[in-house]
């Protein structure tokens, strides 16, 4: 019973891994993300009624349309939950209790149920009842304070991460938590449990080393554009034709980097000999590197730097990423049959299992497409009624 991104993302990952996933939606309109994003079109250019955002989050699922405001809808959902391993919802904190669909109620009919609640701020605390979307969590978590061009630079100011990172991070944490809870149930306790996951918490946790930098040092992280907060050189540079991202991980690599650039004397300068010194003297170092990098194209530098063991890469847009030979070799761009469009492109799951490869067997469903089918499959003949 999830909508928008975080919950559907977690459920789609589980579907990719082989779970049978039933997406329960309201009969009128369903998941709001069905109306977000760009319209999908078939080979003749006709819109199919699906959107890019819905397609990105909902493969591998069957859709059941139930109105939980009705006794019949509540009864059907409780019956489905009694057969399920996992129940995921992202209603407001406590919102499902009035329908008898909260964890305590469903645990009575299925003590083995893993019940995962995904909300903006969690099930308790002063913000628990507040609504929220990804930009709010990017702002409140501190992410915007470290994302964007630094003060004094052209275009200075916070920049929103270019995708719904708070939702996606929360979806990852939800997947991990569900799998851990299932393992504990099946190997230790024999019982289900409630998972309380907040998008704000998940985004704060995802700050990882950046948050720890502040907690250890008391030094406030800053917006640094493409640059690292802790290493240098570790940022994009202009070249003869387009920007190039360079990541130098240690002092030995810095010496090799400078040799490739034709600056063999630079690593011997005490100001640049160690990473700590380089960080302290970035205003003197970076112009030297930038001037040298203007001598060749990004492609030429990538070839030279890769040969020297220095990590680098072009700043691709999505068109270039789709054509990247490594991503194409890894099968990250896939197509699957789609009943209304003919075929549907999608981004593959990145996990590679040696014995149980991910399979993509079901296109994102139409609203309520499988209501009768699922109710009959799960609850038996005669259980299904018209939604």
UniProtKB/TrEMBL annotation:
One annotated GO molecular function is: CoA-transferase activity
Q: Transferase as a keyword?
A: yes
What Pfam family does this protein match (any one)? CoA_transf_3
Q: What keyword terms does UniProt attach to this protein?
A: Transferase
In its UniProt entry, what is this protein called? CoA transferase
Species per Swiss-Prot/TrEMBL record: Teichococcus wenyumeiae
């Amino acid at each position: 019973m999830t909508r928008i991104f975080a919950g559907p993302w977690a459920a789609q990952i589980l579907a990719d891994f082989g779970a049978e996933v039933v997406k329960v939606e309201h009969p009128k309109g369903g998941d709001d993300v069905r109306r977000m994003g760009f319209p999908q079109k078939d080979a003749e250019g006709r819109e199919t009624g699906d959107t890019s955002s819905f397609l990105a989050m909902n493969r591998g699922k069957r859709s059941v349309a139930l109105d939980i405001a009705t006794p019949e809808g509540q009864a059907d959902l409780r019956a489905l939950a009694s057969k399920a391993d996992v129940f995921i919802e992202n209603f407001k904190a406590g919102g499902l209790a009035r329908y008898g669909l909260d964890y305590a109620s469903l645990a009575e009919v299925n003590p083995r149920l893993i019940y995962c609640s995904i909300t903006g701020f969690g099930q308790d605390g002063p913000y628990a009842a507040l609504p929220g979307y990804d930009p709010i969590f990017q702002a409140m978590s501190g992410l915007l304070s470290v994302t964007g061009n630094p003060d004094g630079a052209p275009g200075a100011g916070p920049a929103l991460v270019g995708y719904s990172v708070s939702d996606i991070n929360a979806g990852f944490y939800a997947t991990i938590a569900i799998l851990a809870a299932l393992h504990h149930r099946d190997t230790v306790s024999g019982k289900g449990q409630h998972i309380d996951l907040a998008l704000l918490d998940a985004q704060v946790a995802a700050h990882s080393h950046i948050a720890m930098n502040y907690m250890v040092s008391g030094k406030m992280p800053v917006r640094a554009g493409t640059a690292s907060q802790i290493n240098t050189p570790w940022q994009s540079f202009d070249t003869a034709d387009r920007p190039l991202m360079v990541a130098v991980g240690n002092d030995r690599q810095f010496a090799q980097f400078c040799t490739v650039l034709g600056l063999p004397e630079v690593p011997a300068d005490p100001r640049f000999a160690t990473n700590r010194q380089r960080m302290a003297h970035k205003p003197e170092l970076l112009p030297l590197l930038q001037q040298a990098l203007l001598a060749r194209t990004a492609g030429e530098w990538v070839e030279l730097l890769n040969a020297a063991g220095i990590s680098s890469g072009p700043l691709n847009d999505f068109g270039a990423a789709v054509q990247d030979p490594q991503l194409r070799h890894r099968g990250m761009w896939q197509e699957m049959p789609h009943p209304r469009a003919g075929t549907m492109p999608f981004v593959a799951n990145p996990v590679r299992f040696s014995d149980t490869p991910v399979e993509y067997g079901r296109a994102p469903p139409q609203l309520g497409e499988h209501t009768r089918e699922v109710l009959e499959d799960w609850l038996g003949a005669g259980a299904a009624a018209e939604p």
